[in-house]
Automatic annotation (TrEMBL):
InterPro entries: NTF2-like_dom_sf. This is SnoaL-like protein.
Length: 178
């Protein structure tokens, strides 16, 4: 697909929508069901690539992994050990695109409740590198940096900032993705 075959504005809108779907996919309702990384986040990654660069400083081992499977191995057990996870968008995605590559960044607030009930409130800066593969955009790079914030600040932000239920862009796209 040539750079000129899809208007840049369409690509930017597609990347923005995918980044938001990716963010909202990390929400976890307080139920005992299994959180399946591939079922929830799998459409955002090419599972055959082993050249990805994925990093999140919430990983206690601070690993940079090179495949979606390796990322799944970190986050699926972690999210299954959580009672719940709630995310709110503090700064909407900003996107820069050139050809078949795009970079998007956003800031979100999250409240992670662990199984025994303790709470971790964080402000997170997330930057994703996307590559158009065929007719879709896939994550090929991720840098996520978080810092803890006070519970009273998180309480205010979690009640005033938009979340997944507020996001009207969450209708299914042409690929059946939400």
């Amino acid at each position: 697909m040539s750079e000129d075959s899809v208007p840049a504005a369409d690509d930017i809108a597609a990347v923005r929508a995918r980044h938001l779907r990716w963010l909202w996919g990390w929400d976890k309702e307080p139920d005992p069901g299994h959180w399946d990384f591939r079922a929830i986040q799998g459409s955002h990654y090419d599972w055959d690539l082993d050249t990805l660069r994925l990093y999140d400083d919430m990983d206690p081992e601070h690993r940079t992994v090179r495949s979606a499977r390796a990322y799944q191995e970190i986050w699926e057990p972690t999210f299954n050990s959580l009672r719940s996870a709630v995310h709110r968008l503090e700064d909407r995605p900003e996107i820069v695109r050139s050809g078949d590559l795009a970079v998007s960044r956003l800031v979100f607030i999250a409240r992670l409740t662990v199984a025994e009930g303790s709470v971790v409130d964080i402000r997170t800066h997330n930057t994703l590198i996307w590559q158009r593969l065929g007719d879709d955009w896939k994550i090929v790079g991720d840098h996520t940096s978080s810092r803890r914030i006070p519970a009273d600040e998180a309480d205010l932000l979690l009640t005033t900032l938009p979340g997944a239920r507020d996001d009207t862009s969450l209708k299914e796209d042409d690929h059946g993705n939400r």
